[in-house]
Amino acid sequence: MRDGQCSKCASERVYTSTNGIMMDTRLVLYIKQGKSWQPTKHWVTYLCVDCGYYENYLSDPDILTQIRDAAATLQWKKVD
Ligand SMILES: [Zn+2]
Fold first, then answer.
1. Of 45 and 51, which is predicted with more confidence?
2. What distance in angstroms lies between residue 11's CA and the mean position of ligand 1's atoms?
3. What are the extents of the domains in the chain?
4. Are the C-beta atoms of residues 46 and 53 closer than 8 Å to each other?
5. pTM of the entire structure?
């Protein structure tokens, strides 16, 4: 999607917008971190206007770093 081509239908009509898809009425995504959920307003959306498929990429560097450095304690598992 980030390269401008839809990963589902191969269309090249992909659009992007900061926070383009909201997950609740407060415009905040919640990221699971152990037993708690941390809010973030930092993500980028890529949307295919042919099939409707979209992807959201978290762009909050603090949360990305926390998950990378302490995945197990935050109940994340690296995909191998
Ligand atoms: Zn598509």
1. 51
2. 5
3. 14-69
4. no
5. 0.70
